[in-house]
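testing teh design pipeline on a random one, pls ignore if ur not involved
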């Protein structure tokens, strides 16, 4: 059974609901499903691509991609949902800074919805540590915090993060078993599974609602500490909580409910969006005119595909190298380069509804140049690793560049698909049977 299809169908319908009034009078179509911002700025990791994947599957196609500069410049004024996945919580807080924190708080108090998993869940929890104390919005404590660091059984490099005089430690990795508590929007249901990659176990206070708790482990669970300590730290503790701030709401997920390998958990992300946008009385917004831009010349898209392919081939050759780079408080391995490359490659090679790409040739040519530089940088990184040279600075620059270039591609890709979806019927191409069309729309700031 395809758990995504009902959500895709619902969101397709919502996107095409016309605004009440005279369509002949030039009114644009009324967008009845939310515009979602995916955070791709400082501190984010590759896991924001999981959000992109599940939103595409679920039919939440009006996507924008926001970094810390976008947030500071008011990008959240144009969206209803902000989704923040994993990475480096301290890095996110530093990048956003006071202006980003103020913008995010204003967004929430006005009725916005925040979905945070892993690092995105830690960010708004109450903290006395700078710069996390800029985001003190959710009164909950974490149970995986200790002054005395337990012994790591495996993966010591990913096992803990310093937190003042204490440590945030990660008892397990991979799959955990979770139990809904019966509260809306999760309701009463069977246990479900989702992977844990450093996210918190929480104790809620005040009016914070616990939507799911850690119930157990599976054959896929990897214990990083003694199993008994893992049970004491996690089992019965909150895995997902929901908290209010002004008219807005925050969902904090310890496990990665957005991981594409866990459809039932993905479905609950959609239910959270529906539930709280309906509760706050979000009225929808008038979409931008859905004019379908002229398709790009085939050679422009071919050049982009060639450069992404070149980067992908080099990334594949680096994938198993033992090098590791600590960027901020997070450890990166070479395999992460390929994750970004594959996210583009699967879309450039598909015949999804966003292709052939259309729009500004100069923007696509700039994106092609960025991927050419990434491919060249990866080749240089490979040579330096072979010569056992210091590669820290180059790796940091490459991860930043590939993150930004991937977000810029997703912007073009989803903008195209959204415009095709919301174009007047005579101009909207009919998708092939079974084809899933991703959509989105955003206006990037001018560099």
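output:
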């Amino acid at each position: 059974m395809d758990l995504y299809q009902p959500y895709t169908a619902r969101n397709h319908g919502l996107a095409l609901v016309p605004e009440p009034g005279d369509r002949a009078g030039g009114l644009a179509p009324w967008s009845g499903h939310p515009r979602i911002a995916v955070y791709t700025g400082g501190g984010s990791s590759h896991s924001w691509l999981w959000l992109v994947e599940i939103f595409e599957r679920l039919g939440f196609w009006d996507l924008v991609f926001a970094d810390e500069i976008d947030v500071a410049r008011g990008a959240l004024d144009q969206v209803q949902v902000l989704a923040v996945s994993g990475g480096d919580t301290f890095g996110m807080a530093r990048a956003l800074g006071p202006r980003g924190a103020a913008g995010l708080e204003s967004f929430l108090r006005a009725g916005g919805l925040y979905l945070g998993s892993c690092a995105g869940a830690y960010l708004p929890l109450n903290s006395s540590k700078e710069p996390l104390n800029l985001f003190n919005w959710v009164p909950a404590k974490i149970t995986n915090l200790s002054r005395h660091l337990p012994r790591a059984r495996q993966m010591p490099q990913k096992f803990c993060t310093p937190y003042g005089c204490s440590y945030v430690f990660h008892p397990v990795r991979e799959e955990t078993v979770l139990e809904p508590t019966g509260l809306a929007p999760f309701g009463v249901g069977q246990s479900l599974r989702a992977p844990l990659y450093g996210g918190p176990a929480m104790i809620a206070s005040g009016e914070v609602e616990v939507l799911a708790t850690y119930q157990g482990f599976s054959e896929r669970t990897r214990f990083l500490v003694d199993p008994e300590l893992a049970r004491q730290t996690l089992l019965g503790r909150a895995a997902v909580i929901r908290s209010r701030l002004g008219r807005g709401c925050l969902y904090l997920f310890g496990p990665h409910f957005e991981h594409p390998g866990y459809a039932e958990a993905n479905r609950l992300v959609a239910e959270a969006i529906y539930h709280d946008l309906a509760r706050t009385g979000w009225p929808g917004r008038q979409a931008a005119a859905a004019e379908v831009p002229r398709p790009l010349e085939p050679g422009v898209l071919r050049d982009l595909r060639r450069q992404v392919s070149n980067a992908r081939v080099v990334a594949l050759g680096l994938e198993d190298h033992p090098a590791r780079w600590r960027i901020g408080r997070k450890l990166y391995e070479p395999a992460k380069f390929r994750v970004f490359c594959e996210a583009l490659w699967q879309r450039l090679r598909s015949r999804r509804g966003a292709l052939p790409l259309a729009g500004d040739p100069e923007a696509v040519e700039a994106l092609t140049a960025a991927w050419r530089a990434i491919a060249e940088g990866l080749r240089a990184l490979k040579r330096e690793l072979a010569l056992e040279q210091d590669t820290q600075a180059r790796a940091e620059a490459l991860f930043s560049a590939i993150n930004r270039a991937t977000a810029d591609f997703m912007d073009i890709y989803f903008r195209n698909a959204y415009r095709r979806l919301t174009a007047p019927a005579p101009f909207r191409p009919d998708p092939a049977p079974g084809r899933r069309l991703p959509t989105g729309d955003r206006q990037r700031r001018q560099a």
